[in-house]
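Lab notebook, bench 4. The sequencing result for the construct came back, and we need a structural model before the next group meeting so we can plan mutations. Quick request posted to the team channel:

Model the 3D structure of this chain.
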Amino acid sequence: LKGQQASPFVLRARRSMDKNGMPWHLRYLGQPEIGDKNRHALVRNCVDIATSENLTDFLVEMGFRMDHEFVAKGHVFRKGIMKITVYKIFRILMPGNTESIEPLSLSYLVELNVVAPAGQDVVSDDMRNFAEQLKPLVHLEKIDPKRLM
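Done. Here's the predicted structure in token form:
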């Protein structure tokens, strides 16, 4: 959906497929803050909401359309308020059928994520320190989402 500005309003919907009946999670991610280039992490507003099973029907009725769909298989680890996910991304061969998938790559994706109040720049230093510990195995970098578009 497009709001008052010309930029699109993007929502992400996800759910665990390990058990039937798991709730959907809806996430709004704001635009990345343009700030200090020395900051070690990308910073943006985030709103997470647990929802019911009919989330996808509701979003279609609101005027949203699906842009992409994928399956992520892996593990979630926690270190304090940091969430570390290590997973492989799989392409869905037939839309809506999560049984028919193929890996996009042989590599794993490692993601560091922290939800913190505004102005907590110390958290980005913690993320950088954790990334330094993984350096022999993993190259972590701050990704510019505009570069992916």
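The mean pLDDT is 82.
Will bring this to the meeting.
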